[in-house]
Design a protein that fits this description.
heterodimer, A: 10-stranded mixed β-sheet, 9-stranded mixed β-sheet, 19 helices, B: alpha+beta, 7-stranded antiparallel β-sheet, 31 strands, about 25% helix, about 25% strand
């Protein structure tokens, strides 16, 4: 473990998560508990929003900003800069070096690129399918490198380094600022990629270079190439953003090094993120999953579905038996890539989702969104389309006088006016329309929750829903009821849930390599696997050392990717033994088969079907300093509001006929623990609104955790 | 609502309908995905050769998945057959398997498993999953029975059998099934995958029934069908009444290298279609026929994407919108014991190609639906199955490493290396994957210039691959399965040119690995040194020696619109990126190069001269119509340069460029066009190896300005005045 001077009660642990609309800041104090602050995200200079959120936190704490920064001991940061750079195509012009003859692997995209990552509705518009536009790498920036290896990494065609460097020179002359190198079979033998990297570094020391044998050393040149190209494309942008942020924070007096949230649920230093920035893709939602994982003990659950409802998207993830679930085949912007990454699925559904009618007069909601600008009609910024948030307002879920704690004015008339034409077209009242919008949107979210569980062989009835994000608590009860989940939890920190989760991420170092081990598995295989793990462990340890961490044997965990020999689909299985034996390999196979049966049913396997191992991974993980300390329970102003409602108002709910006289509790912190109340009721908090529909009840647990239970679940 | 009829009054409120429709759609997609993920073969999971469907209690298709479209569309026939055969003997937990084309399967390898879903003792729905099995037995590995002359010479067909009884696998039936196949573990895992996915789905369906009640659940089925039916009918009503024609070929039946013709006249009246295949050739002696199941699948695999593009793919509803006329014992409606093991990629796909062509022509007559069509693309396959020995170990592999391009749209080029649109999830394996399962080196794989059909928007390019044996003990035995090697089946639309043909070539004694070791890699046929070229026929068997190279290229998509109208910026970019050769730019697009760049002025002049040449050298197919030009208002478009226009009280079809009148509104515009004809073999360099020399590309130009409005691929002996369309005025 890294050595530090001893902690003091003054020390702060801070996480800042940059979202699409808000930048959230969470501060964990030694004694006085946790504190949250928000600032507007500043897309042109995200660092500004980060600093603003820190200032807001310092103000909230009532301490001097410089003093606040000086006291920060751990600083974890999550940002969408990588994702945005890619999606908006604002990255560095990237050149690609690929084995000659296979230069077009990325462009061809296995012919499936046209549908990768699309939902079924998009897929069925066959005539209009397209490939990513513009492509990540322009066709003229791809070079065929004279070299070739076979599947064992044996060189067939020697590398012509001179010819290769001439190509690189031309790329640089043309304005390429970043290079991705992906040679066939380089994961089996990285020698040629390394030689290229050396020569490039000598000739063009400033060029950002990404090697496929480092970014994704696994079989499958298309996905490996896409990973490497993505990495090269966002690399310089992400690196310079991080370097400048660190610089600014240091200038302002912060001494703690930056830790970055990763999409795999870990955190890592600037140094390793700078060489593998794609690790940060989807790090925001991963923070949410991590938050859920960290909260398990506080709620006594081990299986959780995450439901993050934002302005434009609905993100979900899973925790099963206390473990984050990995995504076997991530896709971004129609590129399939390979990366150790948390399983996250998203759809376009959120507060800004727009309601419309299809050609047969059916009511539909989303995926188009009014976003933050103009936003829902009630923002009064010129939005004229009825959105989900407008519907929530008109049904009485949102309080026009207390939206975002009263910080934002609400134009109810505009929301009504936006709904009227659509209601008239459908022959409905405005209230009926609003109810319809809420039902359809929440059903779509519920469908995604079912999909993420059932697709992986889980039964949603064995899970609890964690609802967070700006609109999550409004839908918590509806979603949990709809999928039959055990309960819905709204945590006190739900409005900054992802940021809070980031303070729980383990510092993570991973190394992986493909090695096909086909049956019959022999002692020789076992030895080569052990040798591979030893090499991977070394790699992991030396990565850690570079960031001044020391990993003990118990900090490193092994995983293997296993499948039936005739199959393509594979599962990642934990390898609990330090050193493998033939007997352990048998046990590993049995683990795989039982995991497989759990996912696909007892009938799904064929007795005697042979099993093979395809890839091996070592993961080193260390807890962040102080991460084991108090949970984010103690909010500032924790004790609050007595159990008497501040207001009774008429509210409409799906599945119910008339409006309910619904008690509304307004709290600044949390409701008293032990409080129980049957639905319907509404809890208004400064940054969000919790809706408990009829047929559900609210129980407040210690620390102000709200649990929404269905009345028929005792 | 833009003059649309008022929404139907349904028994379920529209919100519940939308909620459940979404849920069922997702459920069906998940069933397919789950089954595929469990599947034992990469053809299913990686290549996407599978599909799933949810059907009503009567067995009408409610949802087909967006995978290999045709596979799900005939599950209705399978369920009908099961209900007829098993009547009262259908129980909860039963599952029925068939591979018999006369019971709804498409061909022996597309093994279907269907299951009734029970709730409280009653059937409330059916589900079905189909996989392409790598091998189902029979004379050849992979079961594509090249050389078979009847069904009895192919792998055995399985009419519906109850393979799961009340939730339990019938081991006796399974043993009989697995006894006949080459890789029983794979087929066994696949069977379990299909069953498990459906069993999970059945449970989820029962959950919905518990939630909304059986009555609502059944009503929902009716509503979804009605919703999709109304959508299709509304679209049809907006189109003018008329008949659109199309034709294509099936090449080589595995015994006889001849061309068989599939012919379609598609008539639309009010909100109904009649697909009349009369005139299609008699069934073949070889295994390329399809049964009625394949004919129906060929129609539906086009109808779903072209007319149901934004609604659930309820093929049971789509089926209610058309009638079929087909003579029995023809190649796409074959009678037992015709050979059908190669049905899907031959007669079935050819049927689909004619429907696609006719429907695209029909949609071209609507200003609103113009954009919803595209030219034909990669459809008929191009693959090889090879087996041999390396280091004493036998191997067999299906090499589907090369895919084609998609057809051009009315507003954009087709997708280069886009693969088959009828199987949107299709993917080619990574070279590393292929090299890890077979002793070969993929020397190169690239998008091949010249494969895509030129046009104002060009067809997407197909790919070209060279593969060399690597470390083999001797020759590899090869089976080649392709179509469209003598006739380009990716025809152009509205004057666009067809894509190239596709081909397998064996280059003898290249010794590519030895060359590679010395640093030499040849990335084209022209450069590669060899001692001779063998040209396998469309269906063929052969040997690939250790020093030989297999070269294969797949067709690109058809083009859209006259190539002489292609924007110079696009053309220049294509030339720069190697997607169009300079030779092609000059020949097909009329480009003039100066100092290595396109000279816009000279090109414009060359293009004008080309149009004049067409008028001078082309054959005028009929007399000039009427008395002169017509610049009357456009009533509706006919493709991209013609339109129905008002000429006084009359309506005519005229050119929107030069106002020349081609014909009366109810005549076929080809009747009085200027026609140019080029043998396919001379149409582009990639067509040099065609076996049938009597196939021609015909271009139809406006007699006024020479702009192309139509192209076709026909036999030289065919009447060039064979019609493209007749509107009812």
């Amino acid at each position: 473990m890294k050595s530090h001077s001893s902690a003091t009660s003054e020390d702060l642990r801070v996480a800042v998560d940059v979202g699409g609309t808000f930048t959230d800041c969470v501060v964990q104090r030694q004694a006085q508990g946790w504190l949250y602050a928000k600032a507007q995200t500043t897309p042109d200079d995200r660092g500004k929003g980060v600093i603003e959120s820190l200032r807001a936190a310092a103000r909230e704490m009532g301490v001097d900003f410089a003093d606040f920064l000086r006291r920060i001991r751990v600083f974890v940061h999550g940002s969408t800069v990588g994702t945005n750079t890619l999606v908006e195509r604002k990255g560095t012009r990237t050149g690609l070096l690929m084995t000659a003859g296979h230069e077009q692997a990325l462009t061809i995209g296995r012919a499936r690129q046209k549908v990768a990552g699309l939902n079924e509705r998009e897929r069925t518009r066959l005539v209009h399918l397209k490939k990513p536009e513009p492509p990540l790498v322009l066709p003229e920036d791809i070079c065929g490198i004279p070299q070739r290896m076979d599947r064992n990494g044996v060189v067939i065609r020697p590398l012509d380094i001179d010819a290769s460097m001439r190509m690189v020179d031309r790329l640089v002359e043309r304005g390429v600022g970043s290079l991705a190198v992906c040679l066939l079979w380089s994961f089996a033998n990285p020698a040629h990629e390394k030689l290229l990297a050396q020569s490039i570094a000598e000739r063009h020391p400033k060029l950002y270079v990404s090697l496929s044998s480092q970014v994704a050393p696994v079989i499958g040149e298309y996905e490996r190439c896409a990973s490497t190209a993505l990495n090269a494309y966002v690399g310089p942008e992400v690196s310079s953003y991080l370097a400048s942020l660190e610089h600014r924070l240091n200038d302002l007096g912060m001494k703690a090094p930056l830790l970055l949230m990763l999409g795999n649920g870990g955190v890592s230093s600037i140094r390793s993120v700078t060489s593998t920035p794609i690790l940060t893709l989807d790090s925001g939602p991963a923070g949410g999953v991590l938050g859920a994982m960290a909260a398990l003990d506080r709620v006594g659950e081990s299986n959780v579905i995450c439901a993050d409802v934002g302005g434009t998207t609905f993100d979900t993830g899973l925790v099963f038996r206390g473990e984050i679930q990995a995504d076997p085949s991530p896709v971004i912007d129609q590129y399939d890539y390979h990366l150790d990454k948390t399983y996250i699925r998203s759809i376009g559904a959120g507060g800004g989702s727009i309601a419309w009618t299809d050609h047969l007069g059916g009511l539909r909601v989303g995926p188009m969104s009014a976003g933050a600008d103009p936003g829902p009609a009630f923002y009064g910024r010129g939005g004229t389309c009825p959105t989900l948030a407008d519907a929530c307002l008109l049904l009485g879920y949102l309080n026009p006088d207390y939206f975002l704690g009263g910080r934002m004015r609400v134009d109810t008339a505009a929301a009504r006016a936006a709904c009227e034409p659509l209601a008239a077209e459908l022959g409905m009242s405005v209230a009926e329309l609003a109810l319809g919008i809420v039902r359809i949107a929440s059903a779509q979210m519920a469908d995604l929750l079912r999909k993420v569980t059932i697709e992986r062989g889980f039964d949603p009835r064995e899970f609890s829903v964690f609802a967070y994000g700006g609109a999550g608590p409004m839908f918590a009860g509806l979603l949990a009821r709809d999928v039959g989940a055990k309960a819905a939890f709204v945590m006190p920190e739900s409005s900054v849930f992802s940021a809070a989760g980031m303070l729980r991420g383990k510092i993570r170092f991973a190394a992986e390599r493909s090695l096909l081990v086909r049956p019959p598995i022999t002692q020789a295989h076992v030895e080569s696997i052990n040798a591979l793990y030893a090499a991977l462990d070394d790699q992991v340890r030396s990565e850690a050392r570079r960031d001044s961490y020391r990993l003990a044997a118990g900090d490193i965990h092994h995983f293997a990717t296993v499948r039936f020999t005739t199959q393509h689909h594979q599962l990642v299985v934990g390898v609990p033994w330090r050193s493998l034996t033939l007997q352990f390999v048998r046990e590993l196979e049995q683990d795989f088969i039982s995991q497989y049966r759990r996912i696909y049913g007892a009938e799904s396997t064929f007795p005697g079907a042979p099993v093979e191992l395809t890839s091996f991974r070592s993961v080193g993980a260390l807890a962040q300093e102080g991460a084991g300390d108090a949970a984010p329970s103690e909010c500032q102003q924790a004790h609050d509001a007595g159990p008497s409602p501040t207001e009774i108002r008429d509210v409409l709910f799906p599945g119910a006929g008339n409006a309910y006289r619904t008690p509304v509790f307004r709290v600044k912190g949390s409701l008293p623990s032990g409080m129980r109340h049957p639905g319907p009721l509404i809890v208004e908090r400064p940054s969000d609104t919790v809706v408990i529909p009829p047929g559900c009840r609210l129980e407040v647990r210690s620390e102000g955790i709200m649990v929404i239970l269905s009345e028929d679940v005792s | 609502m833009n003059g649309m009829p008022a929404p139907r009054r349904s028994k379920i409120d529209p919100v519940t309908l939308e909620v459940l429709r979404h849920r069922l759609w997702e459920m069906n997609n998940e069933m397919g995905l789950l089954a595929a993920r469990m599947s034992g073969s990469h053809i299913v999971y990686e290549a996407g050769d599978f599909n799933a469907a949810l059907l009503t209690r009567e067995g009408k298709g409610l949802f087909s998945g967006a995978y290999m479209i045709r596979m799900a569309t005939t599950l209705d026939l399978v369920v009908q057959s099961v209900r007829n055969l098993f009547a009262d003997d259908i129980h909860e937990g039963d599952a029925f398997m068939t591979t018999d084309p006369w019971h709804g399967a498409l061909h022996a390898m597309d093994a279907a498993l269907v299951m009734p879903v029970f709730s409280e003792g009653e059937v409330i729905a059916w589900t079905g999953v189909v996989f392409h099995e790598v091998d189902m037995g029979g004379p050849r590995p992979g079961s594509w029975a090249v050389g078979a002359r009847t069904s009895f010479e192919e792998c055995p067909l399985i009419p519906p059998v109850k393979i799961y009884e009340r939730g339990k696998l019938r081991a006796d039936v399974e043993r009989m099934y697995l006894r006949n196949v080459r890789m029983p573990e794979m087929n066994a895992l696949n069977l379990r995958a299909k069953f498990s996915a459906q069993a999970m789905t059945a449970e989820r369906l029962r959950e919905i029934v518990r939630e909304v009640g059986q009555e609502t659940f059944l009503e929902l089925q009716t509503e979804i069908l009605e919703y999709v039916r109304s959508t299709v009918r509304q679209r049809l009503r907006k189109l003018p009444d008329g008949t659109w024609y199309a034709s294509t070929f099936v090449e080589h039946d595995g015994v006889d290298p001849r061309l068989y013709r599939v012919k379609l006249a598609m008539t639309k009246k009010d909100d109904r279609l009649l697909l009349d295949f009369t005139g299609t050739d008699r069934q073949a002696q070889g295994a390329v026929n399809c049964a009625y199941s394949g004919l129906l699948a060929g129609i539906l695999q086009v109808m779903l994407p072209l007319l149901c593009f934004d609604v659930p793919w309820a093929h049971g509803a789509a089926m209610d919108c058309f009638d079929v006329l087909s003579e029995p014992s023809t190649i796409n409606n074959a009678s037992f014991p015709a050979g059908t093991s190669m049905a899907t990629v031959n007669a079935c796909q050819a049927t689909a190609d004619t429907v696609w062509e006719a429907m695209s022509r029909m949609l071209g007559c609507s200003a609103e639906l113009q954009q919803e069509r595209c030219a034909l693309g990669y459809g008929q396959v191009n693959l090889a199955i090879m087996n041999g020995q390396a280091c004493g170990v036998r191997f067999v592999n299906i090499f589907a490493d090369c895919g084609g391009g998609t057809g051009a749209r009315s507003y954009a080029d087709g997708l280069d290396a886009g693969g088959p649109l009828h199987a949107p999830g299709f993917s080619i394996p990574n070279a590393e994957r292929t090299e890890s399962v077979a002793p070969v080196i993929l020397l190169y794989r690239k998008q091949r210039a010249g494969t895509g059909g030129p046009g104002t928007y060009r067809g997407g390019l197909g790919m070209e691959v060279q593969m060399a044996p690597y470390g083999v003990d001797g020759d590899m035995e090869s089976v080649y399965i392709s179509g469209a090697v003598s006739h380009p089946s990716a025809k152009g639309l509205s004057g666009g040119y067809p894509g190239s043909v596709q081909r397998n070539l064996v280059l003898r004694n290249v010794d590519a690995i030895a060359l590679l070791k010395t640093g030499r890699l040849y990335e084209s046929l022209a450069e590669t040194p060899h001692s001779g070229i063998d040209v396998p026929n469309a269906k063929d068997v052969g040997r690939l020696g250790p020093r030989d190279v297999w070269l294969t290229y797949s067709m690109g998509g058809g083009g859209y619109g006259d190539p002489l109208d292609r924007a110079l910026g696009r053309l220049e970019a294509d030339v720069r990126h190697g997607l169009c050769t300079r030779e092609e730019a000059e020949r097909a697009y009329g480009a003039v190069f100066a100092d290595g760049a396109i000279d816009p002025k000279a090109t414009e002049a060359r293009r004008a001269a080309r149009r004049r040449e067409r008028l001078a050298s082309g054959k005028r197919l009929g007399e000039r119509y009427g008395e002169g030009p017509c610049d009357g208002p456009v009533v509706r478009p006919v493709g991209n340069v013609l339109a129905v226009r008002k000429a006084g009280r009359e309506q005519v079809i005229g050119c929107v460029r030069c106002n020349t009148v081609l014909c009366a509104a109810n005549e076929d515009p080809r009747l009085r066009a200027v026609m140019l004809q080029t043998p396919v073999a001379e149409f582009c360099e990639l067509n040099a190896f065609v076996h049938h020399r009597d196939v021609v590309v015909r271009e139809y130009a406006c007699p006024g300005c020479g702009v192309l409005f139509s192209t076709d691929v026909q036999l030289e002996s065919d009447d060039p005045r064979s019609p493209e369309m007749h509107l009812v005025s």
